[in-house]
């Protein structure tokens, strides 16, 4: 089971995403659920790291583990982070909806 934990700030902006586990929906190296989650997470991290106006930390130190933390001030960086965060959440929600036995997402706000 893949478990994604997403934390948003009080305005709904992505602050942190941690993903752990394996979907076990197919053979190692051929699991479409793991592949989909990996592509979403790694792409979000890559495009955020390319921006100079967003502070981002992230890593995938081993198979089945991913971490991302981001912060942006006011302006274009904040708008970009909002768009990437929405993209990531929609993608994860879609995968979890289609494969509920293999992927779960928990989203909460920092003030919760």
Question: If you had to describe this structure to a student in words, what would you say it looks like?
Answer:
This protein has 112 residues and is of the alpha+beta class. The chain has a single domain, classed as Cysteine protease Prp (Alpha-Beta Plaits), CATH 3.30.70. It has two helices and five strands, in the order E-E-H-E-E-H-E. The protein has helices at 32-49, 76-98; strands spanning 2-8, 14-21, 54-62, 65-72, 103-109. Strands 3-4-2-1-5 form a five-stranded mixed beta sheet, covered by helices on one side. A hairpin with a 2-residue loop joins strand 3 (54-62) and strand 4. The protein is globular. The model has no long low-confidence stretch (mean pLDDT 93).
Count the strands? 5
The CATH superfamily is identified as Cysteine protease Prp
Spans of at least 5 consecutive residues with low confidence: none
Task: Please indicate the percent range of residues in DSSP E strands (runs of 2 or more).
Answer: 25-35%
Spatial extent as radius of gyration: 14 Å
**Which architecture per CATH?**
2-Layer Sandwich
Largest sheet: 5 strands, mixed
């Amino acid at each position: 089971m893949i478990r994604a934990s997403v934390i948003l700030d009080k305005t709904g902006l992505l602050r942190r995403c941690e993903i752990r586990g394996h979907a076990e929906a197919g053979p190692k190296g051929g699991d479409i659920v793991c592949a989909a989650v990996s592509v979403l997470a790694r792409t979000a991290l890559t495009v955020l790291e390319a921006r100079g106006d967003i502070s981002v930390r992230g890593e995938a130190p081993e198979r089945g583990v991913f971490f991302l933390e981001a912060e942006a001030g006011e302006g274009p960086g904040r708008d970009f982070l909002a768009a990437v965060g929405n993209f990531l959440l929609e993608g994860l929600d879609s995968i979890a909806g289609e494969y509920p036995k293999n992927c779960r997402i928990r989203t909460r706000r920092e003030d919760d």
